Amino acid sequence: MSEKEVTLNDGEVSPSFSSGEPIHDKAAERRLVRKLDLRIIPILWILYLVNFLDRANIGNAKIAGMEKELHLVGQRFNIAAWVFNLGYLVAGVPLTILFKRYGPKSLCVMMITWGITVIGCGLVKTWGQLVVTRLLEGMAESAFISGAAYLIGAYYTTDEYMTRYVWFLTAGILAGAINGFVSALLVKMDGTGGYAAWRWIFIMEGIITIAIASLSYPFIVPFPEDATFLSGPEKALMLERTKKGGHNANDTMTWAKAIDCFKDWRIWAGVAMNLGVTESANSISNFQPTILKGLGYTSTQAQVHTVPVYVTGAAVSVIVCVISERMRKRYPFYILGCIILIIGLSIMIAYPPDPKIRYLGMFFMASGCYTAMPISIIWSTLNTSRGYQRAFAIGMILNFGTAGAFISSNVFLLKETPRFHTGFSTGLGLAFIGAAAATLLFVFSWWNNKKRDEKRGGNTEIVSGTVADLGSKHPDFRFYL
Fold first, then answer.
1. Are 445 and 479 in contact (CB under 8 A)?
2. How do residues 98-118 score in pLDDT, each as one tens digit?
3. Residue 90, φ and ψ in degrees, nearest 5
């Protein structure tokens, strides 16, 4: 991009400042995108599926006997649930930086590490040991999603990023559904080898994690500049398409860049947007089996009834996010997700006597939070600079946003089972906070774009650095809306 080039809201280039770049062969570009889709997304999808199975299995293990055997009285289960997210908060950003430094294959190393801790959860003898293993598991998993998000953004244009990321996220959503089936099967191993059913949920899923991580290692793509799975012309086209994207091969990490990210209120707005819906997403993964059991289902029935909720949430998320990306609008669709979530939470708070209506509330909750989550992440990171700053921002939004999980783990009180009035009311308040943060970000971005357009006018001032490298600091940068 030339230094005089104006970048508009969604990556379009003003005709007055055309860069003169050659028009790509559209057929070749379509073939390239299909090849990227087949090479990058499926393997990351499988890894995330396993990731979420490991993360959400504590809710299934709880109703399969863990609560009684480990004497999880009072808030002990909640502590075991939220300490996982403490690991995220402590290790997420540093490990995301290490991912950028050592490359995408480090994702498999992380995966093997957390697989070991998952097996450990199945071997613990006391509640204290469970807390420690869950903390270590959270630390090991903390950079996986942010690393995958960065890798996807490195290969795709801004108009393709959200669709690919939301397809990646469906693995986590559907893992909740599969977990119900898997847990229902694994509980049949009760007593095998002298281990209770809930232990086998952890042990078998940990073994599967290690096996899949080991098998996946050769198939994880490197960063674009090192891609060997593309021919020469394909690689040149891919690098040309994404040169204004989020990856920068020659970037270095500095304290100044880290401080800039911490001082950027727009990133913190992204954190608030993510936090506003993450609390409800985590309540679904950790407490949905308990909530459904409270509707009158047996443990096995509760496991199975989680499946339609997750499948519906995944379908709605994909449909809405694809429309959002094609229309190049993020704010209205994030707000739509919040509205759907608020409807679901309101149903759960009202606690109508008919359990079928309460069950319907779970569908609204899943559809709303799973729609808003990817938009909060991608919208925020599109407005950051490239390279380490992009990685740092993604790590902040995802891992500080998991503070919502801290909250959900401590407001779903055992004594309030199955109504969980405090938990759902807290989720409702956070959803409004997320909507407020998104509105603030939208208004600021729209106004800032308007002022920059007015100021730009006929000004041809030369700026040291390009829009791609300087991001929002460049006067020609236009915020994504």
1. yes
2. 998 888 999 999 999 999 999
3. -75, -45
How far, in Å, CA of 96 to CA of 145, rounded? 9
- Residues pairing with 133 in the sheet: none
Residues 6 or more apart whose CB falls under 8 angstroms from that of 429 comprise none
pTM of the model: 0.81
Q: How far apart are CA 368 and CA 174, in angstroms?
A: 15
C-alpha torsion angle, residues 213, 218, 223, 229 (rounded to 10): -140
3-state secondary structure at position 85? helix
Rounded CA-CA distance 236/116 in Å is: 40
- Statement: residue 285 has pLDDT above 50: yes
End-to-end CA gap in the chain:
21
C-beta of residue 262 within 8 angstroms of C-beta of residue 395: no
What whole-number distance in Å separates Cα of residue 213 and Cα of residue 236?
A: 30
Take residue 35 and report the two structure tokens written for it. 């090849």
Q: Are 418 and 94 in contact (CB under 8 A)?
A: no
With 0-12 / 13-18 / 19 or more C-beta atoms within 10 angstroms meaning exposed / middle / buried, residue 71 is exposed
Q: Which residues of 141-157 are buried (b: 16+ CB within 10 A; e: fewer)?
A: bbbbbbbbbbbbbbbbe
Dump pLDDT digits (tens) for 47-103: 999 888 888 788 778 878 888 888 888 778 878 888 888 888 888 888 988 998 888
Name the residue ranges covered by the structural domains of the chain.
24-247+255-454+466-473
Would you say 412 and 80 are in contact if contact means Cβ atoms under 8 Å apart?
A: no
413 dihedral zone (left: phi>0; alpha: psi -120 to 50; beta): beta
Q: Give the integer Cα–Cα distance in Å for 254 and 259.
A: 9
On whether the CB atoms of residues 137 and 85 are closer than 8 A, the answer is no
Please give the pLDDT value at position 186: 83
Q: Could you say which of 1.20.1250.20, 1.10.760.10, 1.10.533.10, 3.40.50.620 is the CATH number of the domain covering 24-247+255-454+466-473?
A: 1.20.1250.20
Residue with tokens 């799975």: 229
Q: Taking the CA of residue 310 as centre, how many other CA atoms within 13 Å lie in the half-sphere pointing to its CB?
A: 29
Beta-carbon contacts of residue 312 (< 8 Å; ≥ 6 apart): 363, 366, 367
Higher-pLDDT residue of 136, 279: 136
Q: CA 36, CA 123: separation in Å to the nearest integer? A: 40
User: Is residue 166 within 8 Å of residue 158, measured between CB atoms?
Assistant: no
Average pLDDT, the chain: 82
Alpha carbons 297 and 290: distance in angstroms, whole number: 10
